[in-house]
Design a protein that fits this description.
Blueprint (H helix, E strand, L loop, with lengths): L8 E4 L15 H14 L3 E5 L5 H13 L4 E6 L3 H10 L6 E8 L10 H18 L3 E6 L6 H13 L4 E6 L6 H14 L7 E6 L6 H11 L3 E4 L13 H11 L11 H12 L6
Parallel strand pairs: 1-2, 1-8, 2-3, 3-4, 4-5, 5-6, 6-7, 7-8
Length: 280
């Protein structure tokens, strides 16, 4: 797999994680309008919803898959086979589709499952997704709080099972840039097949570090950043798309295919739909 080392992939989750913002709901027409603007901006991946959990999301992903031509349309699923199959069905009309599946890897306190069972789950869910789609992203949910050896083994398993993108989310937004970069460096040093995939980050803004953590990740080897317009997302939100793009471009050594002249239009559109303005 050839990975352009300077290209930074922008993954937008305004419509999926953004709908976890308290009080925010978007209808089909609004999501179509957002998707078309994101495509016009040159956003690489557009995550539309959670098709296996909500019929509304299934319909939205299915409809948008028929409209968008250049961006990749993505739906989220847990490791449940029915959810993965639902995403596969929903993205079927897309020219470019992605199945994004996640598995909790922090086994310290919430899980009685043995590590072997979780690794088998990762293998099964990623393999199933790959049967439907060549573009599969796997997320190590709650990576920063998981046990390092097991986290590395989980990532290695997901890659062996056919994942093409591995996402390391700061799921609870609790990592400092120093902690997050140490975590990423460990992964790049210890996962033997890490160079076969694109590594992504998905940072939450609980400590106002989402943008900083996303940017520091690039120097560790990460090449996809998951973000949202106006920083929409669960709790305090996600990394703000415009801030991420602006800061990446300032660094000068990365290639981004985003039409920055449309970013303020996107911010205004999201403000109109949700009442949430861009963070200052």
């Amino acid at each position: 797999m050839s990975i352009n080392n300077n290209k930074v992939i922008i993954f937008d989750t305004t419509m999926r994680d953004g709908e976890l913002t308290p009080g925010v709901k978007m209808n089909l027409q609004q999501k179509i309008t957002i998707s078309q603007l994101l495509e016009e901006m040159g956003v690489d991946i557009i995550e539309v919803g959670y098709p296996g959990s909500y019929q509304k999301d299934f319909d939205e992903v299915f409809q948008i898959s028929q409209i968008i031509k250049n961006s990749t349309i993505c739906g989220l699923a847990s490791s449940n086979p029915n959810e993965i199959t639902a995403v596969a069905e929903a993205i079927k009309p897309a020219i470019k589709g992605r199945i994004h599946t996640y598995t909790p890897v922090n086994l310290k306190n919430q899980s009685k499952l043995s590590q072997e069972e979780v690794l088998a789950t990762i293998f099964d869910c990623v393999s199933l997704a790959r049967n439907y789609c060549d573009d599969v992203e796997w997320s190590a949910f709650d990576a920063p709080r998981s046990e390092p050896d097991f986290l590395c083994k989980s990532i290695e398993t997901a890659i062996k099972s056919g994942a093409t993108t591995i996402s390391i989310p700061d799921s609870l937004g609790l990592a400092s840039p120093k902690e997050f970069s140490q975590l990423l460096q460990m992964i790049f040093n210890r996962v033997p097949n890490i160079n076969e995939v694109v590594v992504s980050v998905h940072c939450h803004d609980d400590l106002s570090m989402a943008v900083d953590n996303s940017l520091i990740a690039l120097s560790c080897g990460v090449r996809q950043i998951e973000c949202a317009i106006n920083g929409l997302g669960a709790r305090k939100g996600n990394a703000d798309l415009a801030k991420v793009v602006t800061e990446v471009l300032k660094q000068g050594n990365y290639q981004l295919e985003i039409n920055t002249s449309l970013m303020s239009k996107a911010a205004e559109l999201i403000f109109e739909i949700t009442g949430i303005a861009k963070a200052k």
